[in-house]
Amino acid sequence: MKFNKFVVATLTIGLSGAALAQTIGKAEDQIRWRQSVMQTQGWSMARIKANLEGSYNKDQVIQAANTIQAIANSGSGGLFQPGTDTGKGWRETNVKPEMFKDAAKLKEVGSAYNKEANEMARVAASGDAAAVKVQFGNLGKACKGCHDEFRKEEKK
Amino acid sequence: MKFNKFVVATLTIGLSGAALAQTIGKAEDQIRWRQSVMQTQGWSMARIKANLEGSYNKDQVIQAANTIQAIANSGSGGLFQPGTDTGKGWRETNVKPEMFKDAAKLKEVGSAYNKEANEMARVAASGDAAAVKVQFGNLGKACKGCHDEFRKEEKK
Question: Under an 8 A CB cutoff, do B75 and A66 touch?
C-alpha cells in the first residue's frame, strides 16, 4: 500500500493529529469511535498473530497490516480531545489524564506507532513470515509504549 | 492508495471473505470486532460529510477515505460467521439471520461496497470536492444497500 505525500508528512504529527481540520462528534461519539478504532487495530494484530502461530496466509496478513497502517495514518488522534479523559463510549474510557498533559511523550509514542505501522505494511507485502514476526514484535512494543503511558488497566 | 493484486482480486469476494485463512476469536469477539469495524467506517463517513458541509480539508478526506478503503478490503466478512446472528459484542448484534441465508445477495451488496470504497479513495486523492460529494453519495448508497438487507433497525 502506498500513501501519498500528505500522509507521510503527518507521521510527525502522530496521535496529535487533532490539529487537522474539523473535529466532529460529541465526546461520547469520540470515545466510542476511538474505542472502535483501537479494537479494529486489536483485531488486525490478532489476525497477524494467528498467522504467525498457525499456517501463514500472506494475503490475510496483508489485509490486516494495511488496515493497521490506514488507521495509524487516519488522524485518529483527533478523537482524543482535552476533556475526554472521562466519559463513556461503548464503555467508560480507559484514557489516563496524563495523555492530555504530556505533549512531548504523546508525540514520541505516537510517532513510534506510525513508523512501525507503516513498516508492518511494507514487510507484510513481502510475504516473508520471519520478517513479519520481527516487525510484529516491533509494532507490539510501539502499541504497548502508548498503552503503558496513557491507558489505564483494561477493565474486564 | 494502491492495493496489490491480491486485494483487488478479493473485491469479488466482498463481505464473504470468510473463506480466507484462519477465522479467529470467539463469537463475542467477532461481534465486537465487526461492530468496531463498522463504527470506524461510520466515523470516516462522518468526517467526509463534515468536510463536504463545512470547509473542505483535502487531507482529512484522504485520511478518512483511505481508512474506508483499507477496511472494505480487510476481509471483515470473516467476522460474520454462521451462528452469529445472535450474540453480544459491545451490544447485541443487529445482524439479520438473512445475511447467512442469501449468499447471492450478500455477494452483490458486498461487491458494491468494495467497488465504491475503492473509488472513494481514488476520488479523495484528487481533492475534487464536487467529485467527492458525488462519490460520497454512491458509497452511502452501497452502505445502505447492505444495511437495508441485513441489518436490523438501529437500537438507540
Answer: no
pLDDT (tens digit per residue) in A94-114? 999 999 999 999 999 999 999
Gap from A39 CA to chain B (nearest CA, Å)? 6
For the B5-150 domain, the top CATH level (class) is: mainly alpha
* Residues in chain B with pLDDT values less than 70: 1-21, 154-156
pTM of the predicted model as reported, rounded to 2 decimal places: 0.87
Q: Which residue of A has its CA nearest to B34?
A: A40
CB-based contacts of B2-6 (< 8 A; 24+ apart in sequence)? B2/A1, B2/A2, B3/A1, B3/A66, B3/B69, B3/B73, B3/B118, B4/A1, B4/A62, B4/A125, B6/A58, B6/A59, B6/A62
Where exactly are the structural domains of chain A? 5-150
Tell which of B6, B20, B36, B154 to mutate to test the A interface (max A CBs under 10 Å).
Answer: B36
